[in-house]
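I can't quite decide. Please look over this sequence plus structure tokens:

:::
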Amino acid sequence: MTNISKLAARAWDSATELGLRRSLQTLLSMIDDVFFDLRLGTDMRAAIPQSRLRVLSPENQADAKPYVMTRARALRHAFRMSPAPRQLRFNDIGCGKGKVVIVAAMSGFTDVRGLDFAPQLIDIAERNLDAMKNRLPKDAHVRVERADVTQAEYSPRDCVFFLYNPFGADVMRGFCEQLGRSLDRHPRNIWLIYADPAFLPVMLQYLPVQEKSRSKYGGYEFVYLENCPQVTATACYGLSEG
């Protein structure tokens, strides 16, 4: 089968499964992502299986998903739909090559952090951020860190979290328990955006959050969650811990 035939077959399958509108969104997203790398000089598109990565916590690797790029148009949609305040710290949990943190900064978030337990992916993400240094908003503080999200420190400023189905139930539970301990120490409002929410029941079991809404864009489904309001967003932002 030729490449054109394969593309046509994929387009037909998409139209059958998703409908015309979401299939068109997917097609536009694919085109946009080709030009994303070409225009910005980044390296996002190539998938990387976990078997090719060395990680900080090998005991968690079997539960981790392969690196797969998130589509920029779908991210912009999700950020428009989320009520999370833009001045609060945004965390991409399992940030891979850094596309989410870049799009978050370009979507108005001013304090952006990506976490991943694969140093190889963080190295690529740092190169991508360097390629973007003159294109990101001047008021945006963007960085990526080598960290196991089940052990990372979440300070009072960490209030917004994005996950694109990065791992299975066991690591999801560990992440939620770690974030829950932070909430116990520093009660605050949090907002979560969970893409392709395969383990939403685990999140709802181990975090004091509620599903507020859902949206779909192309082949993605996003769930937006918040905890029960405890402090104002301004108070959350004003806490002095790093």
About this structure: The helical segments are 3-18, 20-40, 72-81, 99-106, 119-131, 169-185, 200-206, 233-238.
